[in-house]
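Handoff note, outgoing to incoming analyst
You'll be picking up this chain. Sequence as last confirmed:
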Amino acid sequence: MPTLLPNPRKTLSSLRGAPRAFKAFRRSRPFWGAMWLALSGYIILQLSWSPVTVVIKSGIGGVSSYVIGFGMLVFAFFALFVPSQRHLAGLLGVAFALASLVLSNLGGFIVGMLCGIIGGAMVFAWAPHTEKQLAKKRARRDRRAAKKKKNGVAHA
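Most recent structure output, in case you need it:
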């Protein structure tokens, strides 16, 4: 009779590669800039949570905080999952951060605005590794492996 429980050895072995996969994901896109942008959007949204009736009655002043906060979160996700569009996400992130100063509780009491400017600038400035940089990393990794092999240390 088959069991419904997963094999613990298989589960553990599949989880061992997770940190390495996350590291590869993080290094192949503007991760920290996107995190700053997302933090900025969260701060701006957090300071403007109100019941829907209050937001609607307050007009554009109430709605603009939500538009700016959600927009910054969207730009952060674009930077993470579509890194080829990082320039647009970075520029619009900075523009929304600057607009939040006027339209949204002084830009999340200035903290949200500063986080947005930093994050947008980091997203805009990020560039993927060039072939020359990747070749240099591969050569360094191969030298380390050869040195370990020479000294008798086995790979884990």
